[in-house]
Amino acid sequence: MVTTLFIATSLDGYIAGPDDDLSWLFTDADYGFDHFYEGVDALVMGKGTYNVVRGLGKWPYAGKKTVVVTTKEDFKASTPDTAVFNGDLTDLADRLADSGVKRVWLVGGGELVVSFLKAQLIQEVVVSLHPVMLGKGVPLFPGPFPKTVLELREAESFDSGLVQLTYTVPKKAAAADA
Question: How far apart are CA 74 and CA 84, in angstroms?
Fold first, then answer.
């Protein structure tokens, strides 16, 4: 199973502005998202990301297995094809793989991404770097997190100024002592 962090960030490292503002994200093109999404079997996201997406209107991930990771044992999901998980992330990855999932999209947010990094459960990182600086907001990688050396697989720039970077995360790339 391959877990991919496919995410957009501002140049100064925020995945959302203050109050979870996403208005700065470019909507002029999909930047490879549709192709990526077609190959995804399951989505994993944190409760905060789930609540933000759910608040945007119609649930965009109907028909895809979605897992919301939370520490709140009483949290209930209200969207189609969505389960709630509050255990060990390695156990979650094993369960998804055992159920036949081949590719997981790690949607966010930042704290869950760091948890996946620490557990060495991310194999690929695709970052769409938007040419905007927000000054504050929700950080892509809230610290602390392990030093992780990535291997650049592809870099693509677009006329809009967006740059998309695709990295492979080598096995045992993260330092265990972080």
Answer: 10
CA distances for 113 relative to 4, 44, 48, 89, 160, angstroms: 10, 10, 12, 11, 27
**DSSP codes of every residue in 99-145:** TT--EEEEEE-HHHHHHHHHTT---EEEEEEES---SSSEESSPSP-
- Residue 45 CA to residue 84 CA, distance in Å, equals 10
Block mean pLDDT (10 aa), the chain, length 178: 97 95 93 96 97 93 97 94 97 98 95 93 97 96 87 97 96 55
For residue 50, give the DSSP letter: H
Tokens standing for residue 8: 């957009």
Burial class of residue 2 in the structure, from the number of CB atoms within 10 Å of its CB (0-12 exposed, 13-18 middle, 19+ buried): middle
**Taking Cα atoms as reference points, which of 172, 177, 121, 171 lies closest to residue 145?**
177
**Does the pTM exceed 0.90?**
yes
pLDDT of residue 105: 98
Identify the pLDDT of residue 144.
85
CA dist 142 and 157 (Å) reads 26
Q: Are 49 and 171 in contact (CB under 8 A)?
A: no
